[in-house]
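We close this part of the discussion by returning to an individual protein. Part of our work consisted of pairing the sequence of a single chain with a tokenised description of its backbone. The amino acid sequence and the backbone structure tokens for this protein are reproduced below.
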Amino acid sequence: MSTSSTEDLSAPNRGAGGSEEPEPIDLLGYLRNLGRHWLAGLITAVVVAALLLGYGALKGSDTVGSTWARAHVMVTLPDPRTDAQSRVLAQSVQYVMATYVAVDDNQQILQQTAKNLGDGTSVETLRASTSAFWGGGGQIIALYATGTDLQQAEKRANAYAQAFVSESAKFMPAPVKGLSPSTLTLVQQAGASPSNPSAQAGGSKTALLKSPIVSVVIAIVVGAAVMAGAELVSSRRRRD
């Protein structure tokens, strides 16, 4: 037998392109090896869960709540002096209303809301529990607030609406150059309400961080990630 034939027989299996065939992935073996690091994953999961649950308990005394209340304010545009201003105002209603809704978490408004309440509620709690919504058409803005019960929610919504009316007038620009700014009027005191139709409104901003179930799920994910990282380091050492 020739030398070349011997080399062909002793060479590893090669594909059509001349490269070695990839080894099959041993998923079961990987999971078995991953299990060796269960202690590190368990410790990490316990620590993360404790931290998240502790955070939720710490915030529990200053709770956002899940009971909704709503007040209404009306935006009155300035009177135009010319036909041109009248046309511009008519075209800018949607922009003006959207601009007011966009400042629903303005620091100045929230600080005044906290002062109006006078019960020690923090600005961060109000940031999570208050929101604004305009459904399009008309010039009425709904101002929402959540609380641990209806009485607290209504109190927050009224304080928020009062602050929204007084403070937004201090920084909102005139809708048309040369005219006075729009004026806001509280037209309906707070009452029980369904939740804000806006998907990002109210208690959803922080509620997930306070949920025990979410805390446990996050802890498990982090623990699994630590186990995977430990196995990756170990496998590299074994290859070396």
